[in-house]
Amino acid sequence: MSVHGYLRSIGVVGPGIDDWSQARSVLTAQSPYRFRPTSLPAPEGLPPAERRRVGRVVKLALAAGLQAAKGAGLDPATLPAVFSSSGGDGQNCHELCEVLATPDPHLSPTRFHNSVHNAAAGYWSIATGARTPSNALCAFDASFAAGLLEALTQVVVDQVPVLLVAYDAPYPPPLDAKRPIAEAFGVAMVLAPRGDSSSLAQLTLSFADAAPSGLGDSDLEHLRTSIPAARCLPLLRQIALGAPGEVVLEYLAPHHLGVSVA
Description:
Blueprint: E1 3-13, H1 20-27, H2 48-53, H3 56-72, E2 81-84, H4 90-100, H5 109-113, H6 119-128, E3 134-137, H7 143-158, E4 162-168, E5 185-192, E6 201-208, H8 218-226, H9 233-241, E7 245-249, E8 256-261
Parallel strand pairs: 2-3, 2-4
Antiparallel strand pairs: 1-5, 1-6, 4-5, 6-8, 7-8
Helix pairs in contact: 1-9, 3-6
């Protein structure tokens, strides 16, 4: 079994990486990778009240998703979307736990509605005016691969462009002791059923038994293994090289996800 489609654009935000242009330069060794904390822009499109309420995870998802939509030259309101995260908003989860541990555990409605796993999808629809379908999913460390498979399957079935947004951010103490995530990282892709002169690549997905692909640079490999959403980096590197090739992405045991890049 395999599915294939075309990659129109990429958005990426992470430690030491602000956009696809910078990521491409680092992944092809045109410039050295230098770690710095992830810089998140103010969430575009949200009214002031919602802008004050959103946490880091929502800002991350919006930043990556808007980059990808702009790169594809498409109105984000027209794109069906798949949002994929290994854990959602860990900071909000922590603050909920703190409130529930007090003698007077009353939760604000805002804190509660930000706790759901599809919060980023909801804020995306507010920011962009999108009324297209969206899915929110989670597959632990395999969340990027699961999101890619879901998004490309939708492209094949519905024959329309689909936006994939995968993102993760650290949990605060003490939760981070059980689920360490090094930094905030988000990646977005616009996938389409047909290619044209602006397409970055054709992607074909199939299940693979080989081990997941790694990166030769030790700093980038640490980034890949320490943030679930950054499991995308071998694929981004292959695309950045502008050459055909095969990569294997971490998926659900005993299988992984093979990606043929053309």
